[in-house]
Amino acid sequence: MTSQPLSVQARTLGELLQTPAYAGRKPFDGGRRLVHDEVRENLTRKLRGGEELFPGVVGYDETVIPQLVNALLARQNFILLGLRGQAKSRILRAITELLDPEVPVIAGVDMPDDPLNPIGAEGQHLLEAHGLDLPIRWLPRRDRYVEKLATPDVTVADLIGDVDPIKAARLGTALGDTRSMHFGLLPRANRGIFAVNELADLAPKVQVALFNILQEGDVQIKGYPIRLELDVMLVFSANPEDYTARGKIVTPLKDRIGSEIRTHYPTDVRLGMDITAQEATRAEGVTVPGFIAELIEEIAFQAREDGRVDKMSGVSQRLPISLMELACANAERRALVQGDSPVVRVTDIYAGLPAITGKMELEYEGELKGADNVAKDIIRKAAGAAYARGYGSADTRELEKWFEEGNVFRFPQGGDAAAALKAAAEVPGLRDFAAQVAQSSDDAVRVSAAEFILEGLYGRKKLSRAEELYAAPEPEVRQQRGGRWN
């Protein structure tokens, strides 16, 4: 016979003390199990069992995660420093999986409070009044995570709380009594995790209130000293450039944060592809060939290295994710309108320009050239890099010679894939090379491969391109390459 879960069995403090986990405990015994200890115990168990700690976080196994695990084992608060789109918020939210499935708290109070050792005046009063009949409720781990996006207009009242004169009058207490206080987000995160995103955007006085309530357990609200010894794990995220761009983290708070952990973008295209495949949403039936997925990811890598893109702002991992979604949507639209097969091609990547231009902050040189032109140039470089990585040693002299003789080729943009593949046969060697790259008998995938080959040769400056029209390189490029066509 299976036993009922604790949340069904125990509805009062007396019932809770009858369970094995709380047997022998007494009210006000001082034996609080802190959130940091709870996280450490569950983390230790998962490490021993070889369980995955942070599902969905890719590319940090050798860098960020070991530092994060060390901070949690050391019972430290920490801050994640990194540019946008580096999974900082995802990591903070994933820590909730290291909490117990649920914990008991006193029912009927605003601030989650330990039924055996309450820290709030209201909880202490209820425990003294009801004793073992104190009603309790069970708080699931998802409700023990409180997140606040920092903005300059956030006040101490928002985070800590404020004196409520009406509540004081109703309860008959003094204004300085914590029972008359309207709690903010931080006290409501008691017995849980409180996360502040973009910490540097908080006003200095609010930052001071944060470390004061956590370290000293007290804060002054409208001249009244309020004491709250909260049990909270405090975690932060921030952009390292925020220290000079929009604000800074005050020195006393920075000094009280146990670990400063730096995040980063994927160091390898394959890791980036894994992240994009995991996060991008696309319709069923749309096919993304591997070489196209690699090209989409390479665009983000090229943008991060491009001198016309602001390095301080970074190029978010959301760029390839959004680009993948738009490219798939364009392939689906083409299939619906023109009867084409829903296979993503290079032309669909160009249709996804809004996903690129909206995710890059340009330097002065880039602004002069224009976001669309910079994005198209980055696509060209990415195509050249992706092509060179996989097929740079391929012999394309016959193909290049055909273009050298003055021939041009406009790639069919819609219709039947077999017809497009037949048109590609006009270029010597292109169809056979496309079959090798595609590694598929599907005509639509081979068409995508043929277009990728031409775009790759364009990226390596062996061809020129004007919209969908491919031709021999411009004369100045020929000369730079040693007069090969002379």
What's this, in brief?
This is Magnesium chelatase subunit I. InterPro entries: P-loop_NTPase, Sigma_54_int. The chain has 24 helices and 14 strands.
Task: Describe the 3D structure.
- InterPro entries: P-loop_NTPase, Sigma_54_int.
- The protein has helices spanning 6-9, 13-16, 35-49, 64-73, 88-94, 121-130, 156-159, 165-171, 185-188, 204-215, 242-245, 251-256, 269-279, 290-305, 318-338, 346-351, 353-357, 364-369, 371-391, 397-404, 417-424, 430-438, 443-459, 475-480, and strands at residues 78-81, 102-106, 136-140, 145-149, 161-163, 181-183, 192-197, 218-221, 224-227, 232-238, 259-262, 409-410, 464-466, 469-471.
- Mean pLDDT is 88; it is low at 482-486.
- The chain has 24 helices and 14 strands.
- Helix 13 (269-279) packs across helix 14.
- It starts with 5 loop residues before the first helix and ends in a 6-residue tail after the last helix.
- It folds into 2 domains: 31-262, P-loop containing nucleotide triphosphate hydrolases (Rossmann fold, 3-Layer(aba) Sandwich); 269-471, no CATH class.
- It has 486 residues and is α/β, with parallel strands linked by helices.
- Strands 4-7-10-1-11 form a 5-stranded parallel beta sheet.
